[in-house]
Write a structure and sequence with these properties.
By secondary structure, the chain is mainly α. The protein is 66% helix and 0% strand. Keywords: Coiled coil.
Length: 142
Amino acid sequence: MSKKQSSQRSEAQKLFYTEVFKQKIVNEVLSGKLTQRQAQMIYGIRGNSTILYWIRQSKGLKGYEKKPVQPANFAEVRKDIAYKKLEEENKELKELLRVAELRADLWQHAIEVAEKKFDIEILKKYGAQPSTASISKDQKKK
């Protein structure tokens, strides 16, 4: 090894950071204030994985544990979709029923008005005998 190479190696010494400083950087990165790259540039931290290493070390500390992510339950998602479809269909059917009831009430009211105005019975009475005129028409057809 030449003298020049050995002097360059001594210049490239490992830097030691205090735990407080490391924790500050980790907090800023985990809170989203800075990215790892930004923190590296701002604070002059060498090494591309240094901050990542600090973050991994701090994961064991209280408050930095990785929160368990529950896998998507596709059966529940399907149930939710089916439930929403049924709710929408129920809403549509209720609206159709409301319109049909309004229409029936309108027809009933129109019949009542016509019966009063023309003094005739429009509603058919069930169980009534057919008139003789309608019987004779049926016999002529045969």
